[in-house]
Amino acid sequence: MQRLARMAARLPGVAQATSCFSEQGQPSLREALLDLRDRSFTSILIVPLVLPMEPGFMNWLTRSLKRWQTEAAGGWPPIRVTRDIAQERHFEPLLAALIEGAAMAPDIVPEKEKPAASLVPAQKRRVLVCEGGACNAAGADAIWGHLRNEQQRRKLRASGSGTMTAKSTCLGPCALAPVVQVFPEGTYYGGVTEAAIDRIVEEHLLGDRVVDEFAYHPTGRKQRLRDNTHSDPTGD
């Protein structure tokens, strides 16, 4: 990734190029954008090098960009996003060149299979990040990436009761997207942002206290996604 960024930096009209990750990895896309914003560039261009690009990628990316701009208001230059790299006319010749050069690739020699063995995780907490349709559209991939980065940075597997994280299929309350569920309590969190993840890590995973500001409890009634200035999330 850094090599690609160095290549891009040498292109005409490019003042600076930074590699980053839309999911797990550092720097995250959000961190890179905030850094570029503070450097007062006249515009920012995002070039997604994602293969294959999921159909909903541009939808959640656009929604996440708008949310980040709202959360860190003021001073944002125009942001543009290039189209899918696989749709470019130069991609087919590149693919053909890779196939033509396959004769130079090393042969893969099968290794003797070893008996499989695994440790049973000792961690008591589980965090599920919903990857259902509504949550994906609301930017769940960015939330997942931030959680995984914090898991590594805060060493959550060995801190507190120990935490394991995983993506999940639909968790149920789609109108509260993006949704995260924390076990063993089974607490649902809705409208989750990076800031909400930071508080869930600090207060719930490490402090054993549910973050009521973002929590939604089973009431037997439908609940709407609330903004955090209102105390009654219920509705018919």
Automatic annotation (TrEMBL):
Signal peptide: none
Name of a matching Pfam family: 2Fe-2S_thioredx
Name of the protein this chain belongs to: (2Fe-2S) ferredoxin
Species annotation: Nitratireductor aquibiodomus
